[in-house]
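User: I'm curious whether this sequence folds into something compact or stays loose and floppy. Could you predict its structure so I can see for myself?
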Amino acid sequence: MKKLLDVISGEMQAAFEAAGYGEAEASSQLGRITLSNRPDLCEYQCNGAMAGAKKFRKAPIMIANEVAGKLQGSRFFSQVEAVAPGFLNLKISEEFLKKYLQEMSAAEKYGLDMPAKPQKIIIDYGGANVAKPLHVGHLRSAVIGESIKRICRYAGHEVIGDVHLGDWGLQMGLIIIGVKERHPELVYFDESYEGEYPAEAPFTISELEEIYPASSARSKEDPEYKAQAMEATYKLQTGVRGYRALWRHMMNVSVADLRKNYSSLNVEFDLWKGESDVQDLIPEMVQYMKDSGYAYISEGALVVDVKEDTDTKEMPPCMILKSDGASLYNTTDLATIMERMRLYHPDQMIYLTDKRQELYFQQVFRCARKTGLVGPETELKWIGFGTVNGKDGKPFKTRDGGVMRLETLIRDTKEEMFKKIKEGREMSDEEAKTVADMVAVSALLYGDLSNQASKDYIFDVDRFTSFEGDTGPYILYTIVRIKSILAKYVEQGGSLAEKEGLELQAAASDAQKQLMMQLAGFNAMMESACEETAPHKVCAFIYDLANAFNHFYHETRILAEEDEKQKKSLIALLILTRDVLETCIDVLGFKAPEKM
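Assistant: Here's the prediction. I'll summarize afterward.
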């Protein structure tokens, strides 16, 4: 289904051609219509006469008047006015808008065109480390990645989400020796042991989360302790049975905890792969890069040059192996790209990380292309996000200055929401908690996603949990208000079944028309949000839509409407508004309760 702006721009293009301004590609450029920047004067505008004045050597107002004359009686516009010095001010026809929304309402996915050739996309987001708690810095990667995944799926693409765990390297060795120091009697450290290892882990997630920071801190002050950690890492990576068994326990305990925490934000991954999954590929990849002449030794390390002639800044080589032969994050990420190409043959790979990693991903992507790990047909895209800051403008911390755990942030937001839900509402504690949890998630997700990903933002729990303003709870309150009206309509004997004559009619008021025009922009918005991997566009759309609905609600008699045909038209408009809003919040990752 064509987007609304494309439909009316096509009509304007035909008018320019009919007026004699159809040379070459001029009419398609001149006929472009945009939303008005003066909504007090008109709904849409066209500045094509201004752009065509020089080309056709004619005053823009003369061109505008001629084009306006060709649009008299158009079924698309109720008003076309040429104004000095050459603008075309437009108002859309209520009858055309009605028909457009009727078609949109009946179409699958509200008329969003599906791609002729759907892409296979892998999104690498999450980036959690095993045996370490998620903190507030993990929020953005999780919720932005999840929303992009959902948006791209809705737009018709095949999308695979991978958490890409940090589950290999020195941190695992640090945990192993930390466990050994606490429990040296464990059978995992007896290298002569040949029996079966226990099925139950010898530690809890809480113990692991204590062991790692303590072990890490000690290794920075005690060289001998760090050497033990490096030896433990080596034994793990070379396959010592007990160390591998202990590592599997770490993985099982950590992943179970990570799933629980991610699930509380409605974040779900298709793949729970980590750095460990590609360790066996690294020797093959390194040998290939050597044999092909891409990799060479520089100061003892194995590197690949990724500098390009067009670079204006220094671009260091991409290091593949350190001088001691150890691999790095670069090595693992390149081997992961190699594995993904073999297993999935994606058309696109999208990575989400802190924006400070821009140089790192430039190096990795260039290395992957130069060495042929990916071909020119596969797009590699990095999205760098800003930080979550406190009200002081600095990275968000706990009251004592530590990094806040993500589960603490979620818990505090849910508790704040519970207090607000209980105020002035007759609701049991159990029901209030269920509703509060849903609304709190909307507050967190919308509070993050409504910001452009690359920008930092201030986390303000009071503002995010408000039922007024540009917030998740405000959007949910609007949806619940619509649901309440529809429920009352049914209580009064009405039916929401399509066969009951619930057909949209032309707008009977300016507020109704504004709501209908907002709805008509859905497919253009969703297409743009997918193409630009921009969840904030969905947020901006539903905020404007919620505002348009609430203005309409306050100015319109809905259930008290005496004309039955008009009442059914209003109910049809409410159903469409509810469904579009719920579709949008679903791609953002949250849902609306039945009442609030």
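Summary: The mean pLDDT is 94. The longest strand covers residues 77-83.
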